[in-house]
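Lines hold sequence, tokenised fold; shown next:
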Amino acid sequence: MGFRRTARRGYADSVTSTDAGEEESSTRRFYGAFNLWYGNPHAGDHKKPFDSFEMRLQLNAADVATLGRLQVYGLLYGDQLSAPRTEANPRKASHIFAVTQHYDYLNNQAFELGGQAFGMGLLSSFPLGGGFTLSSRVLGSFVLLGGIRSPYAEIVNRTYDFGTGLGLQGYLMGWHKGRQVLELAYWGEWLRVIDGTPGDHLIHILSATARF
């Protein structure tokens, strides 16, 4: 269970209306979130595509749709940059260069967004002792094709804008005996419209999660 505040700020290059220009909206809603992790790249699950993957699902209590979020992240290729951990040195940090594939769908009062992307970046894991581990993930991505609900749909008589763009995500996660207990996350995407209302869309998501 959680509580979310979302906000959208957008600008179109050219829209013919007395309401054209900058638009901002804000909502507050309760939701339920479910995460699935398969594999551990720092334990060797990075040798074949999708040896490790992650799925994030969000169900809304009162929003535009019950399905508010579905994101799937899969590891296509991993290269171990650090020496593997050994029994003699179990607290050794692990760093992996990763190539990833992403599918993202988010739907709430502020925006509706979907798309597929490929990314690359660094996965790190830092054993702290006492069963605690700190892990991080920093990835940049190229959005092959993305679609977003147009904030000017009633003006231009078009519901969605489609385009390509770039993304950035950063996660800092705390684990205790294999169970996630803390997460600080940033997810952002810039989408340049190539079919729809001329302009750019810029989405930012910041979140902090604690589990007991």
Summary: The chain is about 0% helix and 70% strand. Strands lie at 2-12, 23-38, 53-60, 67-80, 94-107, 112-129, 132-149, 160-176, 179-195, 199-210. The chain has a mean pLDDT of 84. The two ends are 12 Å apart (CA to CA).
